[in-house]
Amino acid sequence: MKKTIGSFSLIVLLLVGSCGLINKLGQFYVDYNEQVTFAPQLPINVPITVYSPPINTNIEQTLQANNTNPKLVKSVKLNQLTLTITSPQGQTFTFLQNISAYISTDSLPEVEIASKQSIPDTVGAQLSLDINNVELKNYLLSNQVKLRITCADKQMLGQQVTVNIYSKFFVQANLLAAL
């Protein structure tokens, strides 16, 4: 009897440990890089809006590479949104007072995904935004998404500024549902 209980306990422990491992296997990151441009000579304290070109999510290939499919995706959340000035060299984000980033698709409404308020004068050429805890599963499962950046400036730009937008999304898939 003790041998049966011991064997049963061992099997239960292995199954519980395997479930945790399977859950970890269903977790991965998807990242995107996109360029936007801030035009020079914009008036100070006037809202500025810049748009990214449509971003192809390539989600089918990404999910397949991670051994899952759209039906198994439970959740997608933004993990990181970082802006980096790529030109001109030496330019910093000191021209910005605050900034917000939004995501949308042709069929889904726009939602704010990140922002940064009261940008300090000591900021450099890279700016990490504060992430909003928003469920983005349906957005990332679309073929294309669009980003819109809104901001208020506190200095006039003398020349065009090109910015790389790096976004990193955390995907949680339920691989146990496939069993």
Q: Which secondary structure elements does this structure contain, and how are they paired or packed?
A:
Blueprint: H1 2-25, E1 27-38, E2 47-51, E3 55-56, H2 59-65, E4 73-87, E5 96-104, E6 111-116, E7 126-128, E8 130-131, H3 137-140, E9 144-153, E10 161-173
Antiparallel strand pairs: 1-10, 2-9, 3-9, 4-7, 4-10, 5-6, 5-9, 6-8
Count every beta strand, where a strand is a DSSP E run of 2 or more residues. 10
Average of pLDDT: 87
How many structurally independent domains? 1
Helix content: 10-25%
CATH topology: Jelly Rolls
Number of helices: 3
- How would you sum up the global shape? elongated
Q: Please state the CA-atom Rg, rounded to the nearest Å.
A: 22 Å
Series of H and E elements: HEEEHEEEEEHEE
Largest sheet: 6 strands, antiparallel
CATH-scheme architecture: Sandwich
Low-confidence stretches: 5-23
CATH secondary-structure class: Mainly Beta
- Structural class by SSE content: alpha+beta
Percent strand equals 35-45%
Cα end-to-end separation: 32 Å
